[in-house]
Protein backbone atom coordinates (compact mmCIF):
# COMPACT_ATOMS: atom_id res chain seq x y z
CA UNK A 1 0.00 0.00 0.00
CA UNK A 2 1.56 3.23 -1.13
CA UNK A 3 -0.98 6.03 -1.47
CA UNK A 4 -4.21 7.56 -0.20
CA UNK A 5 -6.32 6.17 -3.06
CA UNK A 6 -5.20 2.61 -2.40
CA UNK A 7 -5.91 3.00 1.33
CA UNK A 8 -9.38 4.41 0.66
CA UNK A 9 -10.16 1.66 -1.88
CA UNK A 10 -9.12 -1.04 0.60
CA UNK A 11 -11.23 0.46 3.39
CA UNK A 12 -14.28 0.80 1.14
CA UNK A 13 -13.89 -2.85 0.17
CA UNK A 14 -14.46 -3.92 3.76
CA UNK A 15 -18.20 -3.38 3.37
CA UNK A 16 -20.73 -0.97 4.85
CA UNK A 17 -18.18 1.84 4.93
CA UNK A 18 -17.85 5.30 3.45
CA UNK A 19 -15.27 8.05 3.18
CA UNK A 20 -15.86 11.34 4.94
CA UNK A 21 -14.20 14.77 4.81
CA UNK A 22 -15.60 16.54 7.91
CA UNK A 23 -12.85 19.12 8.36
CA UNK A 24 -11.99 22.29 6.48
CA UNK A 25 -8.60 20.68 5.88
CA UNK A 26 -9.10 18.35 2.87
CA UNK A 27 -5.89 16.53 3.84
CA UNK A 28 -7.93 14.39 6.25
CA UNK A 29 -9.96 11.46 4.94
CA UNK A 30 -11.96 9.56 7.56
CA UNK A 31 -13.20 6.06 6.85
CA UNK A 32 -16.41 5.30 8.74
CA UNK A 33 -18.93 2.52 9.31
CA UNK A 34 -22.30 3.25 7.71
CA UNK A 35 -24.24 1.76 10.64
CA UNK A 36 -22.67 3.53 13.63
CA UNK A 37 -20.68 6.34 11.93
CA UNK A 38 -17.55 5.40 13.92
CA UNK A 39 -14.19 6.10 12.32
CA UNK A 40 -11.89 3.13 11.82
CA UNK A 41 -9.17 4.80 9.70
CA UNK A 42 -7.87 8.36 9.57
CA UNK A 43 -5.90 8.90 6.35
CA UNK A 44 -3.72 11.99 5.90
CA UNK A 45 -0.42 13.24 4.51
CA UNK A 46 2.37 14.30 6.86
CA UNK A 47 6.10 14.74 6.30
CA UNK A 48 5.83 13.65 2.65
CA UNK A 49 4.10 10.31 3.39
CA UNK A 50 0.54 9.08 3.73
CA UNK A 51 -0.27 8.08 7.31
CA UNK A 52 -3.18 5.91 8.48
CA UNK A 53 -4.38 6.04 12.07
CA UNK A 54 -5.92 2.74 13.18
CA UNK A 55 -7.42 1.54 16.45
CA UNK A 56 -5.63 -1.37 18.13
CA UNK A 57 -6.22 -3.87 20.89
CA UNK A 58 -4.10 -2.77 23.87
CA UNK A 59 -1.88 -5.86 23.60
CA UNK A 60 -1.14 -5.15 19.94
CA UNK A 61 -0.24 -1.45 20.22
CA UNK A 62 3.34 -2.05 21.29
CA UNK A 63 3.64 -5.26 19.27
CA UNK A 64 3.25 -3.35 15.98
CA UNK A 65 5.36 -0.44 17.24
CA UNK A 66 8.23 -2.78 18.16
CA UNK A 67 8.18 -4.65 14.84
CA UNK A 68 8.09 -1.59 12.56
CA UNK A 69 9.71 1.82 12.99
CA UNK A 70 6.94 3.17 10.75
CA UNK A 71 4.19 2.22 13.20
CA UNK A 72 4.12 4.89 15.88
CA UNK A 73 1.75 6.23 18.55
CA UNK A 74 -1.12 7.86 16.71
CA UNK A 75 -0.84 11.41 15.47
CA UNK A 76 -3.65 13.54 16.98
CA UNK A 77 -5.41 10.58 18.68
CA UNK A 78 -5.28 8.71 21.98
CA UNK A 79 -1.94 6.91 22.02
CA UNK A 80 -3.33 4.21 24.34
CA UNK A 81 -5.79 3.02 21.69
CA UNK A 82 -4.51 4.17 18.28
CA UNK A 83 -1.39 3.73 16.13
CA UNK A 84 -0.26 5.58 13.02
CA UNK A 85 1.05 3.57 10.08
CA UNK A 86 3.43 5.59 7.92
CA UNK A 87 3.25 4.37 4.31
CA UNK A 88 6.97 4.64 3.55
CA UNK A 89 7.32 1.17 2.03
CA UNK A 90 8.74 -0.52 5.14
CA UNK A 91 5.53 -2.14 6.42
CA UNK A 92 4.32 -5.09 4.28
CA UNK A 93 0.86 -4.57 2.83
CA UNK A 94 -0.41 -7.75 4.51
CA UNK A 95 0.38 -6.24 7.93
CA UNK A 96 -1.18 -2.91 6.95
CA UNK A 97 -4.31 -4.80 5.89
CA UNK A 98 -4.31 -6.69 9.19
CA UNK A 99 -4.07 -3.50 11.25
CA UNK A 100 -6.88 -1.86 9.25
CA UNK A 101 -9.04 -4.99 9.63
CA UNK A 102 -8.46 -5.01 13.39
CA UNK A 103 -9.44 -1.33 13.60
CA UNK A 104 -12.53 -2.02 11.49
CA UNK A 105 -13.62 -4.84 13.82
CA UNK A 106 -12.91 -2.88 17.02
CA UNK A 107 -14.98 0.09 15.88
CA UNK A 108 -17.75 -2.00 14.30
CA UNK A 109 -18.99 -3.12 17.69
CA UNK A 110 -22.06 -1.28 18.82
CA UNK A 111 -21.12 -0.15 22.29
CA UNK A 112 -24.50 0.49 23.88
CA UNK A 113 -24.68 3.05 26.61
CA UNK A 114 -26.15 1.96 29.91
CA UNK A 115 -29.21 3.92 30.97
CA UNK A 116 -29.33 4.38 34.71
CA UNK A 117 -32.68 4.88 36.42
CA UNK A 118 -33.00 8.01 38.51
TrEMBL record:
Which Pfam families does the annotation name?
YjbR
Record field: transmembrane: none
Question: What species was this sequence derived from?
Answer: Mesobacillus foraminis
- Give the classification, highest ranks: Bacteria, Bacillati, Bacillota, Bacilli, Bacillales
Would the keyword Metal-binding be found if you checked this record's keyword annotation? no
Instruction: Provide this UniProt record's keywords sorted from A to Z.
Output: DNA-binding
Signal peptide interval: none
- Xref: InterPro entries: YjbR, YjbR-like_sf, YjbR/MT2646/Rv2570-like
The protein depicted here goes by the name: Putative DNA-binding protein (MmcQ/YjbR family)
What SUPFAM superfamilies does the record tag this protein with? Answer: YjbR-like (SSF142906)
Q: Name one GO molecular function term.
A: DNA binding
Q: Which Gene3D superfamilies match?
A: 3.90.1150.30
Q: Does the keyword Nucleotide-binding apply?
A: no
Amino acid sequence: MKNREEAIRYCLGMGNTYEDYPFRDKNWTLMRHIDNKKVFAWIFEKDGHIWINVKCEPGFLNYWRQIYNSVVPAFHLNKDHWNSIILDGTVPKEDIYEMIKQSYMLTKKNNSKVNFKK
